[in-house]
Amino acid sequence: MTRETLSLIRHQAFIDGVWSDSHHKKTFSIYNPATGDDIVQVPDMDAADTRRAVDSAHKAFTGWKALTGKERSAHIYKWHQLIVEHAEELAALVSLEQGKPMSESRAEVQVGADYALWAAEEAKRIYGDYIPAHKSNARIIVTKEPAGVVGAITPWNFPSSMVTRKVPMALAAGCTVVLKPAEDTPLSALALAALAEESGLPAGVFNVVTASGDSAPEVGSVLTGDSRVRKISFTGSTEVGRQLLAQSAPDIKKMSLELGGNAPFIIFDSADIDAAVQGLIACKLRNAGQTCVCANRIFVQSSIYDTVIENFNHSMGQLKIGAATDIGTDIGPLVNIQGVEKVESFIQDALAHGAQVKAGGNRHALGGNFFELTILSDMNDDMQCFSHEIFGPVAAFYRFENEQEAVDKANKTDYGLAAYVYSQDQAQIWRVMDGLDYGMIAVNEPMLTTELAPFGGVKHSGIGREGSKYGINEFTEVKYRLLGNC
Ligand code: ADP
């Protein structure tokens, strides 16, 4: 690791512009998932520390919201510039704490920077409306106001870009933020806070509270329970999202929840098979299968089913598993041993219900959190892989006969985040896009994340959208002003 990367590693949380320990001085370890080595200890914060962070965000809110959009934009833009300048060090940190190869970490930091830039631009364009009034001597004006203090909670699979997807947009709207990053990967968030500090962001506008897995519920309870926090922005599991929604109900908070997915990847016999297979490699195996938009159920039309599996197996065989620091690594380890155990149990369940292993299926010879790239065929609806996110490098193939069956099976889930379709039949593409109950649909494309488009899901996949012109609405409230007798 370079000296520059080391210089971005922080071992304290960031509250009110000050690097802070937890009040009781407790810490927890952050591990390198490729080696199991202890990288650094960070504060294990509790309710009292979190309240201190909310105090700080609340105090800073008045001054921050009073700035013009142009002034807030300038602040966010400076932060963005520092992120771009330090992109290589930030990427190395992502690989260090999360395990993904450097090529993917670089892409994550880049896309995160794009979101920050978009937010800086949006800060200047939070327009309202002038509405023709119901009386001749009245005026109706609508403005968008900052929601207030935001409690943000982020996951480990994109430790950098999940922060830059939420925090800059909240700041653009005029909100201040208390962020709790995931316990496995808080270093990227702390490094981003260090750059925010360097950019001159006023104290208290962006606070980071670190906490172990055991302390996360306590931190969450303060964020959801404190009535000064007006908005919760969460990315993570449906289970925890549901809990945060319930906890926030008494205070009627504004919520955005980006939760689990169960993405169908449908390949019709009208598809360009080579493009579909290459798309599937990227969509399924990026981040070792640990993304909420990864292909989870691969539906292939009967006539091309065996060919697709064979070609996929061939392409998959070219990929190298290893640590992010090893040259030529394409796929890293899973983030922790719980992830490995979950993948193992899903494979056992599939086999017990009649699936066949066509490749892989076991822990990798490298040991630790590494898992073999795996292909399962003859999958059916009774298996856990059908109803739950696998979150690992396991490609599960289902066979279908006709278009309606593919759409019905794809929709046979509580989730509705991303769906992928490969077809060259234009009429079929439109019918299938209309039929899929998903927040995002990619046709003949395996990657759909961009700050230009609204990211988010329906049903148990969440509420709200991030990025695009829609994203700012998650952090603003509409204020209707009626002026009479004028
Ligand atoms: P995953 O299964 O991907 O780890 P989680 O939903 O468990 O997803 O975690 C996502 C984020 O939610 C992490 O930052 C984690 O610490 C946090 N978290 C987990 N449980 C709670 C909770 N009860 N209250 C607040 N945050 C929580």
Describe this structure in words.
The chain is built from 15 helices and 20 strands. With 486 residues, it is an alpha/beta fold. The strands form 5 sheets. A 7-stranded mixed sheet has the order 14-15-16-13-12-17-18, with helices on both faces. Strand 17 (418-422), helix 15 (426-435) and strand 18 (440-443) form a beta-alpha-beta unit. It is globular. Bound molecules: adenosine-5'-diphosphate. Residues 153-155, 180, 182-183, 216-217, 220, 236-237, 240, 243 line the site of adenosine-5'-diphosphate.
CA(first)-CA(last) distance: 66 Å
User: Radius of gyration over alpha carbons?
Assistant: 23 Å
Q: List bound small molecules.
A: adenosine-5'-diphosphate
What's the tally of helices?
15
Structural class comes to alpha/beta
Oligomeric state: single chain
Number of E-type strands: 20
How would you sum up the major sheet?
7 strands, mixed
Low-confidence stretches: none
What strand line-up does the widest sheet have?
14-15-16-13-12-17-18
Which overall shape is indicated by the principal axes computed on the Cα atoms? globular
Mean pLDDT: 97
Proportion of strand residues: 15-25%
State the helicity in percent bands: 25-40%
